[in-house]
Write a structure and sequence with these properties.
single chain, 34% helix
Length: 240
């Protein structure tokens, strides 16, 4: 039998993205491989969201090449993305997950059991019948994670998923992310929170003005940054 294809590694080769006169990413080469989470950090406007959209296949390079598992035209069957403000369907929490399973072509007979599993995984079993749009911000983000996990992704892209949440909700979301990483899902997560970099661990990709400024283990980035820009960012100085 032919082995199922993989979306990993994701390879960016001298990728630039431009919108009119604005450069969103500038000559970025990067390999995203299986392993611990990758945290994409940098000041606002540094290109974090653009990088995630590229990795998902929602944006195309203006220059350079991106590939998934060695293929440049791979459909996003085993990758999912979660944005800061997820859109909730006009359905219950369970209905939102059921819809995601249907979109992922999950076997119909298996869907009710899978809905229950995913609700339990994100701690929303007691809210299964609550309209999704009446959930709190943290509950909606956990539901959005459940919808993403319904795709059974091997690559999960997260765009500052806790940016608008209080500490308790942030902790709940981070626990789900860490659990997903421990299950073998590759996490690529944009964040501006250095405390979150410490808690999530893994590797760091540091962007400034669309350029890849530094890359390496998170602990080294936090304690021994190699570039002046990274050192300023870690100190909490403005990096423009």
């Amino acid at each position: 039998m032919r082995a199922p294809s993989s979306d990993l590694p994701v390879m960016l080769e001298r990728v630039s993205v431009r919108a009119g006169a604005r450069t969103m990413l500038d000559d970025v080469s990067l390999a995203i491989r299986r392993g611990p989470p990758t945290l994409v950090v940098g000041p606002n406007g540094s290109g974090k969201t653009t990088l995630l959209r590229l990795c998902m296949g929602l944006a195309a390079p203006s220059e350079g090449r991106i590939s998934w598992g060695g293929r440049s035209d791979a459909p996003p069957r085993r990758r999912a993305i979660l944005f800061q403000r997820p859109v909730m369907l006009r359905r219950t929490a369970a209905g939102n997950i059921a819809y995601a399973l249907a979109q992922a072509a999950a076997p119909r007979a298996r869907r009710p059991e899978r809905v229950a599993e995913l609700l339990q995984r994100v701690g929303l079993s007691d809210l299964a019948l609550r309209p999704a749009r009446k959930l709190s911000g943290g509950e909606q983000q956990r539901l959005a994670l459940a919808r993403a996990l319904a795709r059974d992704p091997e690559l999960l892209l997260l765009d500052e998923p806790t940016a608008n949440l209080d500490p308790a909700a942030t902790r709940a979301v981070e626990e789900i992310i860490l659990s997903a990483a421990q299950s073998g899902i590759k996490i690529v997560m944009a964040s501006h929170d250095l405390g979150q970099v410490r808690r999530i661990g893994g590797d760091v990709v540091f962007l400034v003005r669309g350029r890849l400024c530094e890359q390496g283990p998170g602990e080294c980035f936090l304690t021994s940054p190699l570039t002046p820009e990274a050192a300023s960012f870690v100190r909490g100085d403005l990096v423009i």
